[in-house]
Design goal:
Layout: H1 3-20, H2 23-27, E1 30-37, E2 44-45, H3 47-57, E3 65-74, E4 77-86, E5 89-99, E6 105-114
Parallel strand pairs: 1-6
Antiparallel strand pairs: 1-2, 3-4, 4-5, 5-6
């Protein structure tokens, strides 16, 4: 399976966890030392803090549409750029991923902005 195939699967699982309101599942897509940058909030540092943030923000979940516009992998680092839409809000994001020892990819740095 290519890095892009793995990333597309991660995106689908991330969207499913969002729809289900599963903050724990969403947090597992991040490295332990990940940083999440979202509009109007200070940086959220670490998987545990990201889990706590999602636990507050997700509620019962909601449908999200993710569109990947670019994905590049070089060695153990990859980046992705795309757009999202949910509940009348739309925006864009940039993600940096790190390859793990089991060859999977996890989100390491994520920055999003509302359009």
């Amino acid at each position: 399976m290519t890095a892009r195939d793995q990333y597309d699967r991660l995106c689908a699982q991330y969207a499913a966890a969002t729809e289900a309101g599963d903050a724990e599942a969403k947090a597992r897509f991040f490295t332990e030392d990940a940083i999440l940058l979202t509009p109007g909030c200070p940086p959220i540092n670490g998987r545990q803090a990201i889990h706590e943030n999602y636990n507050k923000a997700l509620g019962n979940g909601y449908k999200v549409t993710i569109k990947v516009q670019d994905f590049q992998a070089r060695g153990d680092t990859a980046y992705a750029v795309g757009t999202y839409e949910f509940e009348g809000e739309n925006g864009k994001w940039l993600e940096v991923l790190h390859r793990q020892s089991d060859d999977s990819w996890l989100l390491h740095r994520v920055c999003s902005n509302v359009n």
